[in-house]
């Protein structure tokens, strides 16, 4: 943030992210959890409608998936947790309270190292640490649909404004991830959300589609202003009603500028326990005042009496940890090392687990086709993997290429000679410069006059160097 009027301005941004888990049933009842696009109020029962006498039964899968997410975010998993009632009155809460978690969440004190995002031509360990305050589980609320007078010339409740309620979403498992205020720009917040979406998709616990409401973000923003050797902090503002990564970035940028201008005009500072809620107006591209934010004590939390506490053993946590397969950043490093890919190629190929698996299946049957050529075709031509199988891709790429015989001992000798002559490249490789392996593959090809299989050469080189 540039200096303005001899001021140094630093944005302070924390995120609250809600993610709907893609379980088959809702959080506390057996109604279907897949509610998007369904006939309104067609997937309800006495439990999710909050009718008297209905008792909640927790969804075990949703609880385990929330712990999986906590483990993937390097969080501590307390061996004792519980559900609480969060009391407030609003039309989307049929019970008058929401079953959530307050002081004993399923996961807490996590941390996550961000990479800079696909397209940055850099990946892996070059990001910053973002602290994760907590990961907890709750039930989603009903969906409010606001109608305003006439619509397309049709009669609308005597032309009065009104609100409809769809309870299909009520009770869907909702995981909330709360970060510490460690983000310092709108772009950083956007990248964090994109990488978080990728993470939960790799875990196969949610599609996290923002446009469908499966992932929602509420950033809390204020500014640290250094002026005349004094520090000032602008009032905290939470922004709601954001439904895309692009609008997250726009809303935060707008709010940073609004707060800067307000401070320059009024000198207004943050007050203890005070937070304002503003909504993002997509049409006008501005934030608008909604209400003064209630604090936790205003919700009158107390333990949920109808649900027993959750107790884990260390063996259960270890079993859940073992279920986490290779995550995106781990996969990026492995693809770079194993196939000689650039950071940019590896990050694009790992945007989805399906595309990464497609690439590796193609490499298994590559034959005369170099791994980097496969990667380039997938990355640059954006192959539709659901329409072209990996074997069909390899057949297409192999056309016109002469089969290079595997030279056996002759190849092994050529590789040894190249290694003797290129100590600098070996040193570079061992320092982590994976591009050095491609240089060595080229030197072997040159020595064998193109008769060496590049994939076999790369494999033997790696065996000798690792």
Radius of gyration: 27 Å
Distance between the termini: 44 Å
Number of strands: 16
DSSP strand (E) fraction?
A: 15-25%
Helix content bin: 25-40%
Order of helices and strands: EHEEEEEEEEHEEEHEEEEHHHHHHHHHH
**Poorly predicted spans:** 118-125
Note the total helix count: 13
The 3D shape can be described as globular
Structural class: alpha+beta
Describe the structure.
There is one protein chain. The protein is of the alpha+beta class and 466 residues long. It has three domains: 8-140 and 167-319, no CATH class; 326-403, no CATH class; 406-466, Arc Repressor Mutant, subunit A (Orthogonal Bundle). The chain is 34% helix and 21% strand. Strands 1, 5, 6, 9, 10, 11, 12, 13 and 14 form a nine-stranded mixed β-sheet that branches. It has a three-stranded antiparallel β-sheet with strand order 4-3-15, with no helix packed on it. A two-stranded antiparallel ribbon has the order 2-16. The longest helix is centred in the middle third of the chain and has 22 residues, at 245-266. The radius of gyration is 27 Å and the shape is globular. The two termini are 44 Å apart.
